[in-house]
Amino acid sequence: MTEYEQRVIDVLISTHPGWRYEQRDLPGLPRWWAIRYYPLRPDQRKAGARDMLGRTSLQRLVRALARHDEILHRLRY
Question: Can you give the three-state secondary structure of 6-72, one letter per residue?
């Protein structure tokens, strides 16, 4: 992991503390993952929230987490 990537992960940990972050280098799978520490409620899943988010880049993962927060905010989570 580069220094830049570690700084982005540190920011994600402070702004989205309900997730753990992993880097996986497996062919054909997203490289960066956010995995929730606690399961979602059925109504949250129905609204489009997910327990795991995987993206090919950290920038895409950051955007996915922001969209995820919007979903939960609409549900007043």
Answer: HHHHHHHHHHCCCEEEEECCCCCCCCEEEEECCCCCHHHHHCCCCCEEEECCHHHHHHHHHHHHHHH
Q: What's the structural domain count of the chain?
A: 1
Domain that holds residue 30: 3-74
Q: How does strand 19-23 pair with strand 52-55?
A: unpaired
- 7-55 pLDDT per residue, tens: 999 999 999 999 999 998 888 887 999 999 999 999 999 999 999 999 9
Q: What's the pTM value of the predicted model, to 2 decimals? A: 0.86
